[in-house]
Q: What sequence folds into this?
């Protein structure tokens, strides 16, 4: 995985853990790629400690050595500019012409001119069902299944982390970091096999104000009018970041996952002994990523469908 891909995973899991701990028992959904894009725009205009804090939160602070040669030695570009250029190249690669999906990221910087399934809850849900050959892993510690469901002509995939046995989602979240995520989803653990898959249909549309979250990760100066340094975008030293709003939407249905659906007692399945079974009937984590670049486009937790 490239350096931007690594930064994407690390930032994604940082944000996920903060959102999960701040929204206990609730569904979680966000786009780390969209946030990276927006905060990279802000980084272009940040200087001094403000820039250093943003780079650290985005895990860009150790990436200079990994920049492509054509961006490394460009005297007219700052490090932030070179990173932003590589980010643009990566977005173009993800959203290539000819794909049957479109990645929409709408980021805006606004200026104001003032001075110059909860775990103990059971619900009936509509389940999608399909059988096929999928990549599946069985992890012992913590106990869980990891399933990869490809879609969009195998350009994207959804990775689901499902606790099994006596394990619960909290145990998975405690051990989840960039290293364990790479290990759990590696080819060493995930092998193709015949699987019966049951996944609930669900829609999530969630809006967050992320000021406190970003401050807790280390981006503090940029929100402080006395300390913020955005001199790269304006000579006005009173310029600072007042609010970060993030909104994302997902609709997991038969079309989006290329699954054949049924609900309730209408599902009639003849199980073959050689097939594995993946039954997502309890809270799980999910990540939608680009298969080629391994960039995580969306991440979330389904606690209550």
A:
């Amino acid at each position: 995985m490239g350096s931007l891909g690594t930064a994407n995973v690390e930032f994604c899991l940082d944000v996920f853990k903060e959102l999960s701990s701040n929204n206990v028992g609730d569904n979680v959904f966000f786009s780390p790629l969209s946030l990276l894009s927006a905060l990279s725009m802000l980084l272009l205009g940040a200087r001094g400690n403000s820039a250093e804090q943003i780079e650290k939160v985005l895990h860009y602070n150790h990436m200079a050595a990994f920049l492509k040669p054509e961006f490394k030695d460009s005297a007219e570009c700052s490090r932030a500019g070179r990173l932003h250029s590589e980010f643009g190249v990566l977005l173009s690669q993800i959203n290539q012409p000819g794909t049957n999906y479109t990645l929409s990221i709408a980021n805006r910087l606004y200026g104001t001119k003032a001075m110059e399934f909860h775990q103990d809850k059971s619900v009936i849900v509509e389940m999608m069902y399909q059988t096929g050959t999928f990549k599946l892993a069985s992890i012992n510690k913590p106990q869980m299944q990891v399933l990869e469901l490809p879609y969009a002509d195998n350009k994207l995939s959804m990775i689901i982390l499902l606790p099994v046995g006596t394990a619960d989602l909290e145990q998975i979240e405690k051990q989840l970091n960039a290293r364990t995520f790479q290990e759990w989803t590696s080819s060493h653990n995930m092998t193709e096999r015949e699987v019966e898959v049951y996944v609930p249909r669900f829609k999530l549309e969630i809006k967050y104000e992320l000021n406190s979250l970003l401050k807790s990760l280390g981006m503090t100066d940029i929100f402080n009018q006395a300390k913020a340094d955005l001199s790269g975008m304006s000579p006005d030293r009173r310029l600072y970041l007042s609010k970060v709003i993030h909104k994302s939407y997902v609709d997991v249905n038969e079309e989006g996952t290329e699954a054949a659906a049924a609900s309730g007692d209408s599902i009639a399945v003849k199980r073959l002994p050689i097939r594995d079974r993946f039954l997502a009937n309890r809270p799980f984590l999910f990540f939608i990523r680009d298969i080629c670049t391994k960039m995580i486009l969306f991440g979330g937790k389904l606690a209550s469908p």
About this structure: The radius of gyration is 21 Å. Residues 3-22 form the longest helix (20 residues).
